[in-house]
Write the structure tokens for this entry.
Amino acid sequence: MKSYKIALIPGDGIGTAVIDATWQVLNKAAAGAGFALDGTSFPWSCDFYEKTGAMMPPDGIETLRGFDAILLGAVGWPKRVPDSVSLHGLLLPIRKAFVQYANIRPHRLLPGVEGPLRASAFDILCIRENTEGEYSGAGGRIHNGTGDEVAVETAIFTRKGVERILRFGFEQARKRRGKLASVTKSNAQKYSMVFWDEVTAQVAADYPDIEVANYHIDAMAARMVMAPESLDVVVASNLFGDILTDLGAAIQGGLGYAASANINPERNAPSMFEPVHGSAPDIAHLGIANPIAAIWSGAMMLDHLGESRAAAAVISAIEAATARGIGTKPGQHKTTEITGAIVAALA
Amino acid sequence: MKSYKIALIPGDGIGTAVIDATWQVLNKAAAGAGFALDGTSFPWSCDFYEKTGAMMPPDGIETLRGFDAILLGAVGWPKRVPDSVSLHGLLLPIRKAFVQYANIRPHRLLPGVEGPLRASAFDILCIRENTEGEYSGAGGRIHNGTGDEVAVETAIFTRKGVERILRFGFEQARKRRGKLASVTKSNAQKYSMVFWDEVTAQVAADYPDIEVANYHIDAMAARMVMAPESLDVVVASNLFGDILTDLGAAIQGGLGYAASANINPERNAPSMFEPVHGSAPDIAHLGIANPIAAIWSGAMMLDHLGESRAAAAVISAIEAATARGIGTKPGQHKTTEITGAIVAALA
Ligand SMILES: CC(C)[C@H](C(=O)O)[C@@H](O)C(=O)O
Ligand SMILES: CC(C)[C@H](C(=O)O)[C@@H](O)C(=O)O
């Protein structure tokens, strides 16, 4: 029987609960489709940091490299470890080291879920650049703590980095409704974003079949709320993609529904699958975390592994559960109830 | 009779129509309250650029310095002049040169206007840093046009700049519901945004009466859609404020309702008042631009000039018009009809 080696990183807070739930669902789907998942769990987290002084061991990245895919829950517990330490010590280095440059985030309303908008047409695919740009981590501070203090943070965009994410986006648009929106802020950021616009125009020339539009990030945020039905594939930089996908999650009905895949399209390193939501320390021990975003991310993992039939079965099972009103309102059902309903729908 | 010298910069596209409308309303309000507005109009715009090669004359800033306030329509016509040229040649230099560091943008639902959200509680005040940060204009590109091209854009934050906008925000919170949300992305941008968070904590110590919360920009975008009633004053950097205020405008029902004041709180240079919306070239000659955002911005100008009674009268007149269904749906009423209704309500 075919078997996939999966690295599980539950991480912090509700990460554990949603990964437990996801693992249960994925194994059920695997059994149904005739393949196996061979999971190895890593306790890397803020707990781990408090014990060892690092979010993961020095050879963490090398350890992960041997896996077929990584399933991650959530990282961060700001009251214990500054986010700028925890995220830069675990989540962000994985995305960069494994060149998971395409962060895919589907946003659509699940059956039975009522979003915050009056309008109900909402089905977009965000493609976020995931390795450079505003998250380059380049910068510094001088005159610390004095009235003269200055902090700088440099966004770095490479042609290779911008071009590959745009090409990836265009390919996705071909599989969907043939529309691509590129998001920048070229009216204010005249180096980075003007460059992005230029690359968009160049890459677009290779995709005459795709309808391309350029939006500023502010206008795009407004459009997602006012005219979401006008959008199909949305391609954005690391920061802009981050913002738009939380907004997308909100329009879906909440962070509990937003799935995410950090893809290395060249497949020369493992890809990572994680919900968009964070660790939510405030509800970490209440048993009410919504596992749907993580399970949906797990389905994206199966799809990436080539198990598209099992992936589709998981998505259908999620939809069957929400259509019955399970997991459609925050805190209404326990994590175990939602998971149980999805597992049952798979049977 | 007291008289104020106002510089009018209609700018591009619908800018002219909304400034005409605003000027009519403000003069009516001034007459009612017993003061005069002495306006001088400047044709600085993309038209001007095409004729002269610059968005404004070399002594433009010095010319404006002599005025009590500036009323601006909209700048930009991307098909004719790149935004990165037009905005950096007119709008952005005024904000910076006159140290209009506090960009105030009120967002609330006007009577009769149905926003895109199911929930209808929405009343927040965005305070956006307006002179530095991600809009510093510092950056460059190398290996232009080659596969090795790299573009960098550096956000520069100074302690003075961050501290003064936060203090301004805290003062506003005191006049409202006593809550301040500071927006960063300190989990990913560990120089600039961690610095901002530190300054927030320091300034907050001087305002023990204000309830302070820190949000990441992605979470804030989601919160504005999911739980806007939890927010009061929102303070953000130049870029984050830009994004959140377009989102705020969308939640208000559209860009046609979003007013904005670029304030120099020390009053050692003129402040500038402009709607959040752009020049909308596509509807520039249709006579259907909604002037409410510009008129509301004009009311903020009167308030800044000390004419708070007249300012309040203008706001009430806007509300009287929208309550009657005038200007509440895009394109439904002509600019002149909406203006007429507001002028009539002032009588
Ligand atoms: C936790 C944080 C660093 C992360 C990001 O900004 O990428 C998260 O918000 C996300 O969207 O995956
Ligand atoms: C036109 C543009 C440069 C401007 C900005 O980003 O500041 C506008 O979007 C605004 O919000 O005033």
